[in-house]
Design a protein that fits this description.
This is ArsR/SmtB family transcription factor. Pfam families: HTH_20. InterPro entries: ArsR-like_HTH, HTH_ArsR_DNA-bd_dom, WH-like_DNA-bd_sf, WH_DNA-bd_sf. The radius of gyration is 29 Å and the shape is elongated. Helix 2 packs across helix 4. The chain starts with a helix and ends in a 24-residue tail after the last helix. The chain contains five helices and two strands. The chain has a two-stranded antiparallel sheet. The protein is mainly α. It has a domain of 72 residues: Orthogonal Bundle (Arc Repressor Mutant, subunit A).
Length: 131
């Protein structure tokens, strides 16, 4: 179930408007009307974006008298962060291993043109067309 929910969250955040809504809700709770003021779209369109975010578990709504504020759900963001962090750590470990291999290659004798054993750096005089 967590994988399906994680997939829904990443799909929901693929849209720039929904990412912006999440960013706004990270600062403070807001109603649909308050959110709609920031966009060149109808309240209905903002509501549709919020519905996608709700279904993904990123946002929830509550009732406060006549007001229905939307809240960011940090639990889902934590799940996404944990998933991303695992793969970031794996990628960093691969890069560290690659760096170590490249460092040993730099230290091996005979691999650089400046080394005396290298043919281009021999003590023989250059041959011109004369014999």
């Amino acid at each position: 179930m967590a994988v399906d929910q994680l997939s829904r969250a990443f799909v929901a955040l693929a849209d720039p408007t929904r990412r912006d809504i999440v960013a706004r809700l990270s600062v403070r709770d807001a109603t649909v009307g308050e959110l709609a003021e920031s966009y060149a779209m109808s309240m209905q369109a903002v509501s549709k974006h919020l519905k996608v975010l709700e279904e993904a578990g990123l946002v929830s709504r509550s009732r406060d008298a006549q007001r229905r504020p939307c809240h960011l759900e940090p639990r889902m963001l934590d799940l996404m962060t944990t998933w991303i962090e695992r793969y970031r750590q794996q990628a960093e470990e691969r890069f560290r291993r690659l760096d170590a291999v490249l460092a040993t290659m730099d230290d091996e004798p005979g691999d650089t043109p400046e080394h005396p054993d290298h043919p281009e750096q021999s003590d023989r005089p250059e041959q011109s067309g004369q014999s």
